[in-house]
Amino acid sequence: MSKFIINGGKKLKGEISVHGAKNEALKVIAASLLSEKEITMKNVPNIEEVDRLLELCQSVGSKIRRQGTTVKMQTAEITSTELDPGLVKKIRAAILLIGPILLRKGEVKLPHPGGCAIGQRPIDLFIDGFAKFGAKITEENDSYHFKAVKLKGMNFFFPKISVTATEVMMMTAALAEGKTVLKNSAAEPEIPALAEYLNACGAKISGAGTSTIIIEGVKKLNAGEVEIIPDRVEAGSFAILGALVGNPLRVVNCRPDHLESLFSMFDKMGVDYKVGKDWIEVTASKNIRAVDIVTHEYPGFITDLQQPFTVLLTQAKGVSLVHETIFEGRLFYTDKLNQMGAKIIMCDPHRVIVNGPTPLYGRRLESPDLRAGFSLVLAGLVAECTTEIDNIYQIDRGYEKIEERLGNVGADIKRVE
Ligand code: UD1
Q: Please, what are the domains in the chain?
């Protein structure tokens, strides 16, 4: 198994470029199965999670050509209605395929999907949404069977705001018969980006990016081309890295307008940063102050930045409260930061108190999940001595060639097989 060896304490200087958004790429890949025609995607990140979803699409009939960051795929025919349990266990994004397969084949079997171990991650919203479209759903041996001769437009109020459930209902409604109105929808930037792509293929979607999305179903979708937006989580993680060890670190090819919640915290803490149209430049400073954060749906503080931001809080003066409201299992990694010298007290599964600043020391650790794994990389880059991070498959799922990119700005990090 591969691991990272990091010799921390180095200042990082230069430009680090942001890749395409994992959370848009996955959705566009799945949405491409709505059409029989070819789709061209540009700026697709070369990461495990994307590879696994492409593999799953191939297993149901998609033909895929990949050159660098461009992916061309076409699903002229769907050849299977049963999703491979082995692959589905690896990626929660498998759930995105229910709509396209059900619409084209009238049924689909989905084993309970996997993904990051960051809480219970139920799928009740998907079940309720598809039932409202008119599908019959049965559950057998931890597997769901969706059946429908035709899906009909509907009105749905999300009892809980969910990014993927919003996207799945939106893309399914694009080809359902009649009008669908989705209320209390998620508004993350990847959602209007997906709607823009679907509209370019002939869908009729309005309101994406607000809490009410209205979709007029159409009979078919055409070929399309899309450029994936820059990954705001990656951009935010690099900006936080700059606040820890930047001398300065310039994050380029990004969308700073998607990161206002992070900058409002930087302002309160006294982080030294500058922002341009598509770049952020951050310099580490010793005098940053503690702040409280509460994760929230967009445009609130991003739950995927909570972990790297907590590493920054270990270097801030004073007491900070981190309140994770989206997932119930997303703070346990703080125990690993404590092993490195942080002083973090868990109040309950949703809240921790961070006492700073504390020096961090290298340790041998295991990456628990994608975002927490990357926060351990950040902590390793700040820490004195050597940090070893095992189970980096979890980090590769979302960050492309991260050791190379960090190495280019002066980090001492290497991958050992
Ligand atoms: C997406 C992102 C992930 C991010 C998260 C929150 C992708 C591939 N992943 O995940 O990086 O951390 O949004 O911004 O886009 N829930 C239910 N029932 C359901 C579905 C969800 O209760 O049927 C709950 C979840 O357990 C969670 C909350 O809703 O507590 C929000 O999760 P959701 O927005 O669905 O996250 P994902 O779309 O899986």
A: 3-19+230-416 (3.65.10.10), 22-227 (3.65.10.10)
